[in-house]
Amino acid sequence: MKPVPFDYHVPTSVADAVELLRTLPNARALAGGQSLIPMMNLRAAAPSHLIDLGKIPDLCGVHETASNLRIGAMTTQRSLERSAVVRRHCPLLGEAVDHVGHQQTRNRGTIGGSLCHLDPGAELPVAAAALEMTFTVTGPGGSRTMSFDEFPAGYLTTTLEPDEILTHIDVRKTLPHEGYAFLEFNQRPADFAIVSVAVLLTLDGEQVSQVRVVLGGIDYAPIRLLEAEATLTGNRLDDKAFEAAAAIAAAHPCEGDEVSPPEFRQHLAGVLVRRALRKALERTKVSVNA
Asked: What pLDDT digit, counting tens, does each position of 228-247 carry?
C-alpha cells in the first residue's frame, strides 16, 4: 500500500517547524521516518502535511557539559552508537542503542523519533526512564522542560501538544562507581523486545544506596519497579536479593497477546531482572577497582 496524498514541508528552523504545525491542519512532524512512514504506507496514519525536521541543524549532535550530556532530538541512533562521549559518560544509553533494529534503520532512526513514537517494545524509552532523562520541548509559547515520567500519555501517545516539538534530551553523566545493564528478549535479533530491562545501580560499600529498575514491553510505557527498588536499597546484593527482585518483577501485572501472553512476559521479566542486576553489580565492582 501507499500513503494517502500529503504536502511535504522542509523547515530550516525550530520556529518555522512549530509555525507549520500550528497553522497547517492534520500536520505531523517527521523525524527519521522509521515508524511514521511504514504507518503511512499501511494507512494507519494519514497526515495531510508532513513536516520534515531533518534540515534543522540545531536539533542534531551530542554536547557535553560538566555534569550532563545534551542530545539533539534529531541525532541518529547510529551517531549515538558510535559516539565515544556517549559510551564513556552514558554507557547504559549506548548499550540500549546496540539493541535497536538493524544498522540500516539506526542510520535513519533518531533518538527523538523513537521516544516520541513510544512503542512499548522500543529500547530507548526504557533507557530514558532508567536514566531520568529530561526533555526540552518547543511550541508556539516557547520552550518548556519535562521529565520522562511526565512524557507518556497512553499507547503510542505522549503529552506533547500537536504543535510542539521535542528539541533536546538532557541526561546526567553516569558516575564512575555506578553499575548498569540493559537486557532484552526478542524472537530474532533486531526485533522489538518482548520484554526489556534497564538497571542503574550505586553501592555504598557492600550495600545498595541507589537503584533504578525499569521494565519495557509489559505496558504501554516503561514501568519502574519501585517495590523491587525499595527491597534492594540498603541491603547487600546476593542471591536472596536477586530472587526477591525477580519475584516482584514476575508478579507485576502485564499486558500480553496471542504470541506472548502475560504469564510468558512475566516469566521473562523475572529472568531478565535477575540477570541485569547481576551484570550491573559486576560492572560496579569493575568501576570501583578501575
From this structure: 999 999 999 999 999 999 99
